[in-house]
Amino acid sequence: MSNRMQNPDHLRNIAYPDSSRLNARTEFWQRFGLNADQWYGWYFGHFSPPASARILEVGCGPGGMWDWGLANSQVSPTWDVTLSDLSEGMVSEARDVFSPTGREFTYRVADVCELPFTDGSFDVVVANYMLYHASEPGQAASEISRVLTPDGSLYAATNSESHIKEIVDLQRQFATTSEGAVYASSTHEAFTLENGQGILSEHFQQTEVHAGESMAEADDVGLLVAFVESLDVDVDAARLTDHLKSHIDRHGCFTVTRSSGLLVATHPTERAPRPGG
Ligand SMILES: C[S@@+](CC[C@H](N)C(=O)[O-])C[C@H]1O[C@@H](n2cnc3c(N)ncnc32)[C@H](O)[C@@H]1O
User: Fold this and answer.
1) Least crowded by CB within 10 Å, which of 65, 99, 129, 199?
2) Residue 151: which residues within 8 A CB-CB, separation 6 or more?
3) End-to-end Cα, the chain, rounded Å
4) Which helix (H) or strand (E) covers residue 208, if one does?
5) Whose CA is nearest to atom 14 of ligand 1?
6) CATH of domain 4-160+185-214+259-268
7) CA of 42: how far to CAs of 5, 35, 47, 120, 215, in Å?
8) How far is C-alpha 3 from the chain's CA centre?
9) Distance from residue 129's CA to the centre of ligand 1 (Å)
10) Is residue 133 in contact with ligand 1, taking CB distance under 6 Å?
C-alpha cells in the first residue's frame, strides 16, 4: 500500500466519512469547470448497459451519477442497480438521496478489493474516481472482473497524470510538513488514464480510453483553498489565501487543469466459467 489515500481506515474515517470534502471539489468544478450537465451528459453518452442490466457501482459516494441520471431521464427503469462504498457514511447519504425519489436501489458497504458478491453477478460495474483509492488496484480489477458476467463491462472514470497539477503545486508549496509536500502528487497516481489500461489489461481482454481536457478559471479564493484542503495535505491556509489573492489581483483568475476521462473494459478474464464449459 503506497499512501494514505489507499488506506481503507484513513479513507473510511478521515477522507470520506461523509461527502463534505468531495463536495468542495464538486462545487468547484460546477462553478468553474465542466459542470454536471456537461460531464454527466458526456459520461451517459458512453454508458450503454443492456435493458435488463444488473449494475453494481463501487465507491458510489453520495450517488451523484444516479442523481443526475434520474433527473435527466438517463436511468432505465428496468436496470437493477446496487450502490456500494467502503464508507458506511457515504452509503447512508446515497440512501437518503434516493429513498424519497421512490426509485429502488440496493445498498451495500463493501471494499472493492473484496466484493461480497458471487462470480458473474453483474452485467455492468461502475467504478468512477475510486480505483486509485483501492489498496491494490490490480486486486480491485480482479474482483470486478470476477463479479461480471462473460459479456460484462466495467466503466471506470479516472484522472490523468496532469489533472489539477496547479493545485498539486499549491499543496507542495504550502504544505505544513515536508512529508505533506512529498505526498501531494500521489492522490490519484495509483490508477490514472495513463496507467489504468495496463492494470485492467491483466483482467480484461479489451479496454478503450476516452479522454478530455479543459481549463477552469477560478476567482473564488475561499473555494480554491477548500479544494486544496480537501485533498488531505495540511496546508498553511493563511499564506495560501494571501498567495491566491495576489495572484488573482494580478491575473484575474487562477487556472486549474481538469484532465480526466473514462476507461471502458470488456471481456473479463476472471469470470465464472460458462455452465458446462
Ligand atoms: C472521489 S470519491 C468518488 C465518488 C463517486 N464515485 C463519484 O464519482 O462522485 C471516492 C469514493 O470511493 C470510496 N472508496 C474509497 N476506497 C474504496 C474502496 N477500497 N472500496 C470501495 N469504495 C471506496 C470513497 O469512500 C468515496 O466515496
Assistant:
1) 99
2) 123, 266, 267
3) 37
4) strand 204-218
5) 59
6) 3.40.50.150
7) 27, 11, 9, 28, 17
8) 17
9) 7
10) yes
- DSSP at 11: I
Q: Whose CA is nearest to atom 4 of ligand 1?
A: 61
Looking at residue 13, its pLDDT comes to: 87
Residue 250's contacts (CB-CB under 8 Å, 6 or more residues apart) are none
How remote is the CA of residue 73 from the centroid of ligand 1, in Å? 24
Q: Is 36 in the pocket of ligand 1 (CB under 6 A)?
A: no
Residue 273 has pLDDT above 90, yes or no: no
pLDDT at 1 (0 to 100): 43
Cβ of 109 less than 6 Å from ligand 1 = no
Domain residue spans of the chain: 4-160+185-214+259-268
pLDDT surpassing 80 at residue 272: no
Q: Is the pTM of this model over 0.90?
A: yes
**Distance of CA 9 to CAs 6, 87, 184, 206, 225, Å?**
9, 9, 19, 33, 25
1 burial level (CB within 10 Å; 0-12, 13-18, 19+): exposed
Q: Which atom of ligand 1 is nearest to the CA of 127?
A: 6
Ligand 1 pocket check for 86: Cβ under 6 Å: yes
CB 11 near ligand 1, within 6 Å: yes
Cβ 137 under 6 angstroms from ligand 1: no
Grid cell in block for residue 42? 458526456
Q: Which residues pair with 211 in a beta bridge?
A: 261
